[in-house]
Amino acid sequence: MCRCPAVNKAQEKMSMKIEEIEAKREQLIFTARMYGMYAEETLRCSQELDHMIVEVQSREFPFS
Fold first, then answer.
1. How confident is the model over 28-62, as pLDDT tens digits?
2. pLDDT (tens digit, 9 = 90+) per residue, 3-29?
3. What count of other Cβ atoms lies within 10 Å of the Cβ of residue 18?
4. Which helix or strand (DSSP H or E) is residue 1 part of?
5. How far apart are CA 56 and CA 19, in angstroms?
6. What are the backbone angles phi and psi of residue 27, rounded to the nearest 5°?
7. pLDDT of 1 strictly over 70
8. What CA–CA distance (Å, rounded) separates 14 from 37?
């Protein structure tokens, strides 16, 4: 592991984002089971998850 504070901070932030994405994914699964795949709540949750993933990807892979 790098001892550089800036790198460690970035890794910590990324780890937190990944945990947030995982929590949103779990919420999406729960919502879909409770309300159905095409319910407004499920679609909203899916869009939020998509947005979170795109945000992380654009930060990690800005030239992709």
1. 999 999 999 999 999 999 999 999 999 998 887 77
2. 677 778 888 888 899 999 999 999 999
3. 12
4. none
5. 12
6. -60, -40
7. no
8. 29
Tokens describing residue 4: 């550089």
Contact indicator for 28, 56 with CB cutoff of 8 Å: no
Q: Give me 31's structure tokens.
A: 């919502």
pTM reported for the whole predicted model: 0.81
Phi first, then psi, for residue 18 (nearest 5°) are -65, -40
Supply the DSSP string of 11-61, one letter for each residue: HHHHHHHHHHHHHHHHHHHHHHHHH-TTSHHHHHHHHHHHHHHHHHHHHH-
